[in-house]
Design a protein that fits this description.
104 residues; alpha+beta; 5-stranded mixed sheet; 3 helices; 5 strands; globular; binds FE2/S2 (inorganic) cluster
Length: 104
């Protein structure tokens, strides 16, 4: 299945993804820059992405933990998610996310 990723600079990547992998892991493993400092433990919010509106309804809702971490992220929007908290699965084939900018 494919994960479509846009970087904060506007570069697009179509990445091959496997079921059960975290969106953050797919991005990182293909070498697309994403900070993801805590390695997927929902403890850093540096894996912040914006999910394309068309896909929002297909994702499970944010957990309380994710909500709390997102509160600390930069430029949070309605479609903000932590990419380490989204697992790839068949019906997410084609999912499109944009990596959120980090404060400079
Ligand atoms: S990688 Fe740290 S919260 Fe996702």
């Amino acid at each position: 299945m494919i994960l479509n990723v846009t970087t904060p600079d506007g570069e697009s990547h179509a990445l091959e993804a496997l079921e059960g992998w975290r969106v953050m892991e797919v991005i990182r493993d293909w070498g697309v820059p994403i900070l993801a400092e805590c390695g997927g433990a929902c403890a850093c919010a540096t894996c912040h992405v914006y999910v394309d509106e068309a896909w929002l309804d297909r994702l499970p809702p944010r957990s309380e933990e994710e909500e709390e971490k997102l509160d600390e992220a930069f430029d949070v929007r309605d479609n903000s998610r932590l990419s380490c908290q989204i697992l790839m699965r068949d019906d997410l084939d084609g999912l499109h996310v944009t990596i959120a900018p980090l404060p400079r």
